[in-house]
Amino acid sequence: MKKISQHGQWSSRLAFILAATxxxxxxxxxxxxxxxxxxxxxxxxxxxxxxxxxxxxIPIMMAEIMIGRRGRQSPINTMRDLAKEVGASGxxxxxxxxxxIAGFLILSYYSVIAGWAMAYVVRVGSGVFEGATADGVxxxxxxxxxxxxxxxxxxxxxxxxxxxxxxxGVKGLERAVKFLMPALLVLLVLLVGxxxxxGAFKEAVSFLFSADFSKITxxxxxxxxxxxxxxxxxxxxxxxxxxxxxxxNVSIGSTAVIIALADTAVALLAGLAIFPIVFANGLEPGxxxxxxxxxxxxxxxxxxxxxxxxxxxxxxxxxxAWSSSISLIEPAVAWLVENKKMSRMRACIWSGLVTWIVGxxxxxxxxxxxxxxxxxxxxxxxxxxxxxxxxxxxxxxCIALFAGWVMTKESAEEELDFKQLYLFKTWLFLVKFVSPxxxxxxxxxxxxxx
Length: 450
What we know:
- By secondary structure, the protein is mostly helical.
- It has one domain: Amino acid/polyamine transporter I (Up-down Bundle), CATH 1.20.1740.
- It has helices at residues 13-24, 27-39, 43-71, 75-85, 93-125, 134-145, 148-166, 169-198, 201-209, 218-230, 238-243, 252-280, 290-301, 306-339, 344-365, 379-406, 409-416, 421-446.
- The longest helix has 34 residues, at 306-339.
- The radius of gyration is 21 Å and the shape is globular.
């Protein structure tokens, strides 16, 4: 019998695509993908990355959506019931727990960084950075993160707007992404237009798209493999729970391909918006997260209409973070509603409150407790390392193994419903053999074994 989610379902395929793309597009898309593309061969790296997306990202995404739609519950209950359905060990429910906890921990520190973006909307908009020197911008950032009260206030505000959306259920999620994703695209296009007019656009295009195959190294391939896995929001229960709201008549395969390509397109557009400004001002393109909060404000402070377009840029960051954050907490909320018989509002209050409390650890790790280290890492660094390098790859590996080796071939074929048999056989081969091996390699790379 076909199950029905007690939480409702997406009204259309487009709603799911917007929601899943919103989950995938986050702060990392805005700076990380363009940067690693430029450093690893430009267009040549993009080709390698797309191959990795089709070999790793899309097969695992299809598996996660398929598992979610098959179970129609929170990831924990879905894994428990699907394992029982095929007579497998009940221990598979811990895969659900792994994803839920990973998403919860990621949101606890993600909210703090998103709060920085919200604060910078106000700062850039009020002209704080106009004419500022590099030292001046660095001092502003240093003073900001050294103030736990300010960080806590912005962290709290971001958590509130996240939970307000989640509390409204699937309809709330859908309404949010139907606004956030088109708004994000419009902002990106406006910023690209500004970059064309004010920046070194040709230099940026060359940095991103000139295919230099001599720069493709084994390390670059590992970077492409890792980003292909992480960029699609896999392994944290978000895609699985979103899949549980997907109507039965929607094609999982073509939908996953569209989401992956949309995620890549947004990342490349972000590069075309950022790097012309970076190059026009002689700034360092490889400064990672510092590019956002310490480098770009210098550029916006010295360019025509810089305050206006700088404000738009940080609004873009907030929207990208917001669309991701609502998916990170949804699995936990769904489980509380299903297992503790809570109303959705009460489940949101409790899950949001606990996430907020854990986030205080990240707030303090930038100031009061910055000298307290665990294995030479601050609280924030520990959470980031634990989730990105251990929990997510492990969850992604288990999803591939469950879909390829534990679920029956008939169940997978029924859910995926490919029109051509060779497409199903290709997916099955990738998810059984190629994706697991690739994720293990990504995992070993992440923990510095290779």
